[in-house]
Amino acid sequence: MPELKASQLVTGVAKTKTKQFTVGATAVGVAFAALVAVATGPWDSSGQRKAEADRAVSQGSRGGADHGRTSPGAPSAAPSAPAVLAAPGASVPGPTEHALADVLDPLLKDAALGSRRTAAVVDAVTGKRLYGKSAGDALTPASTTKLATAVAALTAAGPDHRIATRTALEKDAKELVLIGGGDPTLTAREKNPYDAADLGTLADRTAASLKDRGTTEVTLSYDTSLYSGPSLHPIGVNDNLAQVSALMADEARTDDSNSGPVPRAADPAASAAQKFADLLHERGIRTKGAPSPSKASGQAEDLAKVESPPLSALVERMLTNSDNDIAEALARQTAIAADESHDFDGAGRAIKKQLKTLGLPLSGAHFSDGSGLDRTDKASAALLTGLLAEAADRGRPELRSLLTGLPVAGFTGTLAHRYADRADASGTGLVRAKTGTLTGVNTLAGSVVDADGRLLVFAFMTEGAPGPQSAQAVLDRLASSVANCGCR
């Protein structure tokens, strides 16, 4: 693997020889992220950098909390940041296998991890595995499945791919068809914090086009034919996931939330179409009766479209919030790009096909969905670290959003409220990782820059844990130990 430059990383780092978290360590970590943000691009869509900045300011940390934005009174970078920024390269020695084992072995034996536990730590610069315990065994990955989904979608469809929602007018000019492209983030809300495709904007453009044709009354139908197979996930109706449809608005949520469990509309497509009808009415276009399902004919004339943010932004949002709806949508986009059937089975095949082209270790791997809600999903710690190392490779810039989207310990997403205990708090701001939790299943996979400035990726997986909180605490401690380990 080619040497990884610091300017291509988005990860917290603290140059420290202790295993105790300090405000100073946090300041260095946040400052590093701030400088890297400038090098890697604009403010990310997940709000991740803003969350880090707010946390740093609230704790009185000195250093770069502005994260790439120039604003009056913004704090400057910590003095130590330039030296740290230059660190994650081949010139910095990595930890030794023996020293790393001395630190991790005792933690991995903790009974709180349950009956099965596997682990892997890999040097992202060389690709060498520095630590492994049954790393090739395939376990249930839970939501760390989303790492595989992200890599597959980014390589199959591309990071710049946008999902379009369209309207088309049938030849008789009496039937308007709302055509779903598979964008779960399409919004009908006035507030749009993620710069999502706007159903109101689509109504503006559609109404204007209809009026240009002298049409002010239509029959509205909606087309979800892009997807095939069952729309209901095998786990059944669940507040963590809407039915998987090519057409929905705001993930079919029945409240104003953007993430987390909430009841979903029974028919996401019908709900979105009715919202669109209401928006058309506000713009002077009458619709006859309730919207009904249909399929646009080959003679239908395209009127208007709106497009989602690029896939790279959707990947960030999916990983930070562990968004199941986006995950299933990205799995279907992978299937479309890979010419597989546009259903759960085809998406699973497409994900595995894409990962195979990258030469990743797929022994025992299986993907029944894109979100990790299905317990029949299987992946190994070797595969998870392989995915992360691939994203860290300077030759794979299309995968960079896999790193930028990872939740930050104590700051963002599914790690915002973890790393609060004294035993694992040393990882706060330094560990970036995707979580995975099902009953009896706990996983954590991500990246750190260790105390000597070496970029490492890790995966810890468990099954049969007696309690999720105790298992998560040990996983957090494992990651914190990697982050704060000189281990030479």
UniProtKB/TrEMBL annotation:
Residues 71-90 have a biased composition (Low complexity). Signal peptide: none annotated. The chain crosses the membrane at residues 21-43. Residues 43-90, 251-272, 285-307 are annotated as: Disordered. Keywords: Carboxypeptidase, Hydrolase, Membrane, Protease, Transmembrane, Transmembrane helix. Its EC number is 3.4.16.4. Belongs to the peptidase S13 family. This is D-alanyl-D-alanine carboxypeptidase/D-alanyl-D-alanine-endopeptidase. It comes from Streptomyces tabacisoli.
